[in-house]
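#onboarding

Welcome to the new folks! Below is a worked example of what a typical request in this channel looks like: someone posts a single protein sequence, and someone else replies with the predicted structure as tokens. Don't worry about understanding the tokens yet, we'll cover that in week two.

Example request:
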Amino acid sequence: MFATRKNHSRANRPGIFFILGMLFMTAQFMAITLIACAEEDDKNIPRIQVTATEAKSATWALSIPAQGEILPWEVAILSAKTNGVGATEVAVVEGDTVRKGQVLARFDDRLLRAEVAQAKANLALASANLQNANSNLKRMQQLKLKQVLSEQEYDSVATQAAAAEATRAQAAAALTLAEIKLADATVTAPDAGKVLERNLELGQVPQSGAMLFRLLHQNKIEWVAQIDAAELNRVKPGMKAQITLADQTLLSGTIRSVSPQLSSGSRLAKVRILLDGTPELAVNTYVEGTILIGSAPAIIAPANCLVIKDGKTWVFRVKNPNTHNAIAEQVLVSLGRRQQQEIELLSGINAGDILVLEGAGFLNNGDKIAVNKTSIASAVSAGATP
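Example response:
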């Protein structure tokens, strides 16, 4: 009886093994199915749509911030040189651009023209008298050689000739003076420029020396910047500078002088920067700008990447940007220089990191995101050239 049971147990072993194998395969299939379902569910989880950009390496200028006024490079002051005559014409007003030699004003010159005419007549008379005196001197010289003329008589004629020559020179000088006075009755621009100030009206009789016009010489202006004493030894003539206007326009210039002394009140030093070209800026305008003292490498990104939270500045770096498992990683950064819409990241980010550009304000650390593939490709392409 025992032998019969043993044989029956051995006969059922293949069936047991088959059942166990089927159970194992079923378990494997169910595990694979659960993983696939989990992955499918993960793909279907809603993700925040963002665009991205790449942090780039660049070389940016080092600068010193400064403030100051826009002032004339040089001013030409035109003063009255006539006395006792009134203005018959005033041809310009403030803001007019003038060329060299252009007439700015005229004064009544009738009396001055008469003085010129009289001086010319006096010169002609003096010239005739000199000619007559010289002729007499030559005749006296011949008589003296023949010893028919006394020494006293010859000296008298020679003195008359010398006096006639002096009288003619005096008449010539009087004519020159009269012509100068006549020329001074017409005020002309000494060089090209712009009228900054006009202190003359039609019919006005200014005294000699009174200021009539102030001209901006050659239309050139400069930025007179004020810098701290600690920065004075870093600034040299020939360095470049930039100013920023109210509309964010940048104007460039070159340092032409650095003051060797500080103002007694503010302890600031003046730096004069001649602006390039002839920009249309009002004199005495107060502007801010920078003095460029060199350059240094920088990691830069668009300022739109920045997110302010709890009084700190963050960016969101994209982990796994080219997969469906992209995650937003919140990174604390410190900021440096800024140029227009880009800013320097001093810490936290390396060149080549992919950063969230649009949508960063809606993210938290570890959020799963969907990154616009076009934006990634554009960011990588842009970052290929430093």
